[in-house]
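Anyone opening a protein record will find just a pair of labelled lines. With that in mind, the following record should read easily:
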Amino acid sequence: MNILERAKAPTPKFFRILRSIGLALLGISGSIVASPVILPTAVVTAAGYVAVAGGVISAISQITVDDKAKKEIENLNKARDGN
């Protein structure tokens, strides 16, 4: 299974929730980093680290595959004669 097939395959519910949390972290930290207001260096640095963590969480969660659901989809795509 290559990376494109993994990205298109069904994702388990836990990892869909985790992906959403990662995207939220990425969005919030991105807005902090891009803020036109002068913020303390520690806040901007922490936001950068949170952005990286959110991106990694989202990417890993996206390529996690639900094998049970994937097998059900493969069975639906088989020919009717059982081959």
Q: What stands out?
A: The radius of gyration is 19 Å. Residues 3-76 form one domain. Residues 23 and 68 are 26 Å apart (CA to CA).
